[in-house]
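Technical note accompanying the year-one report. For the benefit of new consortium partners, we illustrate the data format agreed upon in the data management plan: each record pairs a sequence with a structure-token string. No post-processing was applied to the example shown here.
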Amino acid sequence: MADPSSYRPRPGEIPDSPGVYRFRDEHRRVIYVGKAKSLRQRLANYFQDLANLHPRTRTMVTTAASVEWTVVSTEVEALQLEYSWIKEYDPRFNVKYRDDKSYPYLAVTMNEEFPRVQVMRGHKKKGVRYFGPYGHAWAIRDTVDLLLRVFPVRTCSAGVFKNAARTGRPCLLGYIGKCSAPCVGRISPEDHQELAEEFCDFMAGRTGTYLRRLEKQMMEAAEEMEYERAARLRDDIEALKKAMEKNAVVLADATDADLIAVAEDELEAAVQIFHVRGGRVRGQRGWVTDKVEEITTGALVEHALQQLYGEETGDAVPKEVLVPALPEPALPAQEWLTGRRGANVSLRIPQRGDKKALMETVQRNAQQALTLHKTKRASDLTTRSRALEEIAEALDLDSAPLRIECYDISHLQGDDVVASMVVFEDGLQRKSEYRRFQIKGFAGQDDVRSMHEVITRRFKRYLAEKEKTGEWADGSGTEDSLTDGEGALTSADMGAGAEAFTGTDGLTSSLKDDEGRPKKFAYPPQLVVVDGGQPQVAAARRALDELGIDDIAVCGLAKRLEEVWLPGDDDPVILPRTSEGLYLLQRVRDEAHRFAITYQRTKRAKRFRAGPLDDVPGLGETRKQALIKHFGSVKKLRSATIEQIQAVPGIGRKTAETIAAALAAAVPAAPAVNTATGEIIEEEEPETTAGSSGEPVTAGLPDERRGQET
């Protein structure tokens, strides 16, 4: 625990001007980012008697080891820079509104030749129109199912689309009239693009014009005695009205607004947002956060605005944002929102009428969310603290291990050997800092040497970065350089902010170094857990000792009896089955195992398995894929002539002869004969074919190819 007076700036050193400040811990990791109209007055509040500080603020200033600041010219710049740094450093003590789910959106991929309607989660992509968020994915699918009758936009995946185009036959939706079947040329790209635009206009709330147009067409068809067409238009109108009824009108005059409400107590705050488009509630979501310091409702609203609109531009930012309290001052936040939208945005507190009544409804939702959250989480905070204390006591640690890293090895009978590293902080997952490793060479032959290599690689870079820079690098959640570019995390496991962010004020914050590489991961844990028993623990300890690291504890958790092993001990530590510490270690170990298995399966799926082609000497993965893609299957390749094989790009005469000889040698087994009739029973040969995505797909792998995963 640091004494704040040890790093307090000298009197007169802090400027009396707007700016953004960062608190760093002893490892130079940013743990808190804030902004102030006057840096001198704001920072002075942190360096007072600890007894007068908010509990979380007291923890923050005693965890920090230094403070630094950047002066800006306006408060709008300070707001933008604060948001950029929070996205870059992900400080643990900052207010972060988050919950345990990713809200689904209805997305239309307008950046494609044939736009597709689909459900999307996660980060928003450029060129895609989003509507929502919705509480449940099924709500989106119900709405889309009703609208496809009127707007038959493509909804299929790229693989299904390509397969339909190749065969000349549309999918089921194309036959029943719920898709215009652009895959088989029933509609031109221009007309399909226009259809997608009409779908987006309807979802954006511009429904009246379209309904009136359909009604006019229905009446014209009836007058011309085209009764079947009139009946179809009537049914289309009913479908649209049914889709509209799912969202009740709450505000008149086709209002576009977001309503934000906050419910709070001394330690936590809950935020609820209602998205109103065209006067109808199109989506709802909520966040809960810990309060880091004594903070006003207006300041909580300001943080919510940052996280809600920080990556939004254009129409995604509504014309009107209604809040329970205004930030102090309110003008910089309003100017920032205006810059994000590119047009004027009204930020205000509703005073009367329908908007105030709706705000009261949002407020009740926020209060209920906070009550439910406290009911669910109250025991969790106590449980996590007790678990960490039990681990510290069982392993004889000086303090509770606030940061735990766990490692696991996974392979398939010695092939595709990989390792995982997962991180838990304060007993919770820190997915943005997970890492994956590939194990090559001799190390893949056993788990012990693989574990030694992984620990060595991870902590060798840790030491190299410290020696290179003279300080600890920030863990920014980007790809670990220890994987040499081969261990990139999937979007599901990566945190936000892996690319440079440029705000409307030109303030740029990059998550990459001067050479364009991702920043290194070099933040040390208090405890390293390995999946395994005494041999794996000894290997991990030996790797740390060889690097001269003696301040990081190591333990292992064996699967069979859930025994905790310590380096050099002949007997394991047995924790009670009801121990919260054991439960936490099990969760850490199981998460590492899941992450390793997922990566190993991904690598195995990418391996090209082409039956007899695997045994052709000198034939690499690229040329095998080219052959299968050209002929469609190994069966067709076997019947091809040498000249036909040679026509494949990259295949010469000698290679073609070798392939033909290898396929001829791999003769299929003799056909089975029906003893009663004397007829030959035809059996399909398990063959490798090109899948809809262009990737090889293998069916009928022999049992010896399957193996066991570890």
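Partners are asked to follow this layout when depositing records. The radius of gyration is 31 Å.
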